[in-house]
């Protein structure tokens, strides 16, 4: 079969895959979940679970994608013809549509805040005013929809350009810029007077803070931070050369994800402690507390703008991968159809996301199972779609795909894996499914 597009280099693939994984989960969610669950002990558990649970699923998705070099639905159909396994791909596509529909809303919030930071609208506000500003921003119907549309137009424009000229090219600029900006902010934050308390909070584990909730939340964070479960990496790996070492690529992505989470913690917690704020502010940490923190710094407005730019970059690189799943299924590797497919899929997703954009304003009274529209969409993807998809993928690779095929695919581009393959295979068959089931049961409220 002729491959219409491939990554031009291993680095291009790693940066794109890392960009997919490094999004709001690492920069927005990690700090506030860590801040409310023990800091350093949460981070330690997150690292362990990412290495031993998240990485095996990531590798499994890589195997499915590169072995078939097909989209998220066709890949499962080829490996298990005349069986229902291809519904894993449909689950991934549906989850991706719903995910991007509300993810783009948050992307719009970031654009709103970036504009305000550039124009100096944050200057001199009190912490209470930051809280009311956030509520006003997300509750303004026109602003919410317009900024969501702008975010989606940027995403569509990049994805319609293709793998090499669109997604890979954008990530090659955005990801290095993201790391550079993060390092600048981390250095500034750690040099504040009193920052050592924040560094200690992030890096010195207190084992007395370990609880069942800490274990489950850190496992869930490691799982969701890598964006596994909706076949994102199946799609990306389908463009990967057979000569590449998938095991090394997977651990490069995992390593970059952990590093970004560390940098996010080193940007936020030293500043929060140094300036007398609390680390357990919850989801509002980035949009409410952080602007107030930066406002207390010399050149704080500049540093806030830098932070919002890197948050926008991280959110966009994830959005590229989510839209690509849908587009890849529509075009079936026929490059001539890509531009039209990207615009059709992107606009449909934007329209589907409008109720989520309005769910904090004019549609705030509408609830589904006691949740607002935005929160319900988030819950269905994060707590149902992702864990179920990852569970099915681990079972599919561990029990349905022949062991010889799995091993052969994983050993391509390597000099032999030895015992590492046996360890990974045992994990994907036994450890990973059990862990996912525990996370899933907890997330839907069965385990508390």
From TrEMBL:
Keywords assigned: Membrane, Symport, Transmembrane, Transmembrane helix, Transport
PROSITE patterns the UniProt entry points to: NA_NEUROTRAN_SYMP_1 (PS00610), NA_NEUROTRAN_SYMP_3 (PS50267)
Any Pfam family matching the protein: SNF
Transmembrane segments: 12-34, 40-64, 85-115, 144-163, 175-195, 215-239, 251-277, 297-330, 342-364, 384-402, 423-447
InterPro entries referenced in this protein's UniProt entry, alphabetically: Na/ntran_symport (IPR000175), SNS_sf (IPR037272), YocR/YhdH-like (IPR047218)
Compartments where located: Membrane
Membrane topology: Multi-pass membrane protein
Family, as annotated: Belongs to the sodium:neurotransmitter symporter (SNF) (TC 2.A.22) family.
Name this polypeptide is given: Transporter
């Amino acid at each position: 079969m002729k491959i219409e597009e491939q990554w031009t280099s291993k680095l291009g693939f790693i940066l794109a895959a890392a960009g997919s994984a490094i999004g709001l989960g690492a920069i927005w969610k990690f700090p506030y979940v860590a801040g409310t669950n023990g800091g350093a002990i949460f981070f330690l558990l997150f690292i362990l679970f990412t290495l031993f649970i998240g990485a095996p699923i990531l590798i499994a998705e890589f195997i499915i994608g590169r072995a078939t070099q097909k989209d998220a639905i066709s890949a499962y159909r080829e490996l298990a013809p005349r069986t229902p396994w291809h519904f894993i791909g449909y689950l991934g596509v549906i989850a991706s549509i719903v995910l991007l529909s509300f993810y783009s809303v948050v992307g719009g919030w970031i654009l709103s805040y970036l504009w305000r930071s550039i124009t100096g609208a944050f200057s001199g506000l009190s912490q209470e005013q930051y809280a009311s500003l956030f509520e006003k921003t997300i509750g303004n119907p026109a602003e919410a929809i317009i900024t969501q549309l702008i975010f989606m137009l940027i995403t569509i424009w990049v994805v319609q350009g293709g793998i090499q000229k669109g997604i890979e090219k954008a990530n090659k600029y955005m990801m290095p810029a993201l790391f550079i900006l993060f390092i600048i902010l981390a250095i500034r934050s750690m040099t504040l007077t009193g920052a050592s308390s924040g560094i200690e909070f992030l890096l010195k584990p207190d084992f007395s803070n370990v609880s069942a909730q800490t274990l489950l939340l850190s496992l869930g964070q490691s799982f969701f931070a890598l964006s596994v479960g909706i076949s994102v990496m199946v799609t990306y790996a389908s463009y990967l050369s057979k000569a590449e070492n998938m095991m090394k690529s997977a651990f490069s992505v995992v390593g970059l994800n952990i590093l970004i989470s560390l940098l996010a913690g080193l940007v936020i917690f030293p500043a929060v402690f140094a300036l007398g704020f609390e680390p357990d502010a919850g989801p509002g940490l980035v949009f409410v507390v952080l602007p107030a923190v930066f406002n207390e710094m010399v050149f704080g407005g500049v540093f806030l703008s830098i932070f919002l730019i890197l948050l926008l970059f991280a959110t966009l690189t994830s959005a590229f991968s989510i839209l690509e799943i849908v587009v890849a299924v529509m075009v079936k590797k026929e490059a001539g159809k890509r531009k039209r497919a990207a615009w059709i899929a992107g606009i449909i997703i934007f329209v589907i996301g409008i109720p989520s954009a309005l769910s904090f304003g004019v549609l705030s009274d509408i609830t589904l199972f006691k949740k607002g529209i935005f929160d319900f969409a988030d819950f269905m993807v994060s707590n149902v779609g992702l864990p179920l998809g990852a569970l099915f993928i681990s079972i599919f690779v561990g029990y349905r795909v022949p062991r010889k095929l799995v091993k052969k695919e994983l050993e391509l581009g390597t000099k032999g894996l030895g015992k590492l393959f046996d360890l990974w295979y045992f994990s994907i068959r036994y450890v990973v499914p059990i862990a996912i089931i525990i996370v899933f049961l907890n997330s839907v409220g069965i385990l508390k």
